[in-house]
Amino acid sequence: MADFARARRTMVDNQLRTSGITNWRILDAMNRVPREKFVPDHHAPFAYSDENISLSPRRTLASAASFARLVQLAEVNSQDVVLDVGCGTGYSAAVLSNLANAVVALESDEVLAAKGNDILADLDIGNAAIVAGPIEAGVPREAPFDVVILEGAVDAVPPALFEQLRDGGRLVAAMGTGNAAVVHLFVKTGTDVASTASFNASLPVLGQFAQKEEFVF
Description:
- By secondary structure, the chain is of the alpha/beta class.
- It has a single domain (about 5-205), classed as Rossmann fold, CATH 3.40.50.
- The protein has helices at about 5-15, 25-30, 65-75, 90-95, 110-120, 160-165; strands at about 55, 60, 80-85, 100-105, 130, 145-155, 165-175, 180-190, 190-200.
- A hairpin with a 6-residue loop joins strand 7 and strand 8.
- Helix 1 (about 5-15) runs antiparallel to helix 2.
- The longest helix has 13 residues, at about 5-15.
- It is globular and about 50 Å long.
- The termini are far apart.
């Protein structure tokens, strides 16, 4: 039987710390949340490998290091209400629940959302829940949010997500695809949003955010 606790410690030491993750709260949370619970059974032995893991044809769990860098950039604190976009089965929501006051996770795949809520319940996580719905629409009924994190690369951030961001709130998103994706930190001030490019990352694509192609005849 795999020693998942040992695998988690190795992940923290060999993947997170070496990727510049210095926030002890993130390191502690990711050392405790059982990542293997959130992936298909046949992927469980590889849950702590330094790679993205397919959850379904349309959703992929980002590597632990890539995810941790997004969270560290967002500077999530214990008073924050977080919108976690494209959460899959909820691993990201489980980690964020250790850092934030509350987490509203959003997933367009109803099967993954239902499974994720079952996993969160099994782990007795009471301050995070997954909402099934179009991820590009956000969750306006729960807005405003202090932090919005997109769990994958996108062509553009939908205006609805900025609208649901609190004044002074932060949104973290990777723009582009493949290794060329650049993670940006967006900060909202009044009706204005300022963007700062931070680092490159290889993240799964959130296909629902892809810009529609224009055909020229």
